[in-house]
Design brief:
Layout (H helix, E strand, L loop, with lengths): L2 H13 L6 E6 L5 E6 L2 E5 L4 E7 L5 H6 L2 E6 L5 H8 L11 E3 L5 E3 L4 E13 L2 E13 L5 E4 L2 E4 L11
Length: about 170
């Protein structure tokens, strides 16, 4: 199998793996907010409470995330598709197009997410063309909303049919 064939099949396999969708935010050394859409998010440990996500080395704001010492992970709500697109776009003033404010931890927090996990950087790991960031969760906020689902390059609310009738 060639490298190109393997990459095509890998993208197809991973694109068919349903995940949630997050926006990760941080600040630059000048205290300017930065953020991007991320679906490479997972829990790691309960004690200590750790999560991970990964960032492509080509992302222009990578140093704000890898050297800033803290970040916030927003698990998006089902109705936040437009916000997901904005934070996945290039050359866009992302924060001018959403409601947000700084937290007590001086992290940019976007309003309306299903959940927000504020983290301090626990460890970074170089892995191929990405860096894996492991964060220790320092604060959590949750709203009574359904989270967003990503599958086959589409995203949206979890369909009602997904749940048994007894859980509606």
């Amino acid at each position: 199998m060639t490298k190109e064939e393997k990459q095509v099949l890998f993208k197809e396999a991973m694109g068919n793996y349903p995940t949630g969708v997050t926006i990760v935010t941080a600040t630059t050394p000048n205290n300017e907010p930065v953020g991007l859409t991320v679906n490479s998010f997972a829990s790691v440990s309960l004690d200590p409470t750790l999560v991970l996500w990964s960032i492509d080395h080509k992302v222009s704001s990578i140093k704000a995330f890898t050297e800033g010492g803290k970040f916030a992970i927003h698990i998006l709500a089902g109705e936040q598709q437009e916000l997901c697109k904005i934070f996945a776009s290039k050359n866009v003033d992302r924060f001018s197009q959403c409601e947000w404010e700084f937290s007590a931890n001086q992290l940019p927090i976007i309003q309306g997410a299903f959940a927000v996990l504020e983290c301090k950087t626990f460890k970074t790991v170089e892995a191929g063309d990405h860096t894996i960031l492991i964060g220790e969760v320092t604060d959590i906020q949750i709203e009574k909303k359904d989270p967003m689902l990503y599958h086959r390059r589409h995203f949206g609310a979890i369909p009602d049919e997904f749940y048994p009738v007894s859980e509606k």
